[in-house]
Request: fold
Amino acid sequence: MAIACLPMTTDKTPLPRDVAYVGTDHHSLPTARANFDRSTRLAVSLHCGRTIAVIDYNGDVRACELRESLVRWLIYDYDFGALWAAQGRQTELNAIDGGKACWCTHVCFIHDSMRHSRKALLYEGPKNYMTRKKW
Reply:
């Protein structure tokens, strides 16, 4: 798995960006890895289908790469607002149930969910940055 790395400051004083980026990765990567072995609930509410979605190469729209297609975007004449307001999307959100019925292995979806959680932003990220063993 490749990880993009932002440079730290040269004087070893972490910038808020460093704390946020490294702290977030030190939370999300172990979470994603744990979900390959067994279902592990996220520490935050899952936001897939609410604040992030997948548009496949053929125009299918999914709440997550691991979920079935909700609809083909073409049906809504490529009007994402209309698609987003559709009942089918709400049905999918109810099925996901904020992560109670879905276990995330995709870091981009974990990151998106974390940015909507005060606990993750103000506690989990900084804590994981300060307690990391390396990097």
Observations:
- The CA atoms of residues 76 and 86 lie 10 Å apart.
- Residues 43-131 form one domain.
